[in-house]
# Entry
Amino acid sequence: MADDVEVCGEAAVAVQLVVGRLGMPGAPILRLELQIDGAGVNGVAEINQAVIGGRHRFEVSGEVGQAEQGRQIALSGQFTPAGQPPADFTAVLSVDDDWSGTGRFDYLQTHVQNVPVKAEG
# Structure
């Protein structure tokens, strides 16, 4: 869940989110540990998928803006899969004040769209 913390004199929010269809065999699941400070966001992303080489953990950053449901979070990052060149990652989440909503994320040749987002923890 979200916790208010003080960072550099401004209120910031720490939140853990899970993005994806939990319980669907083989579906990629994105877990996020984010620090939201005003319009900026930084944190760690972890993608898990039940395939060989399907776990990736890396840093992300991005921006927070207004959305129809409450706020939109746009993230990007990069990771290096085993034996491959660096891969780009992007995600866009639309969430309400309870950190619930929908999102999409893209990495390698995987494009996940219109999946649930919810707070974890």
In short: The beta strands are 3-7, 10-19, 29-37, 40-48, 55-66, 71-79, 87-95, 101-107, 110-119. The chain has no helices and nine strands. The mean pLDDT is 90.
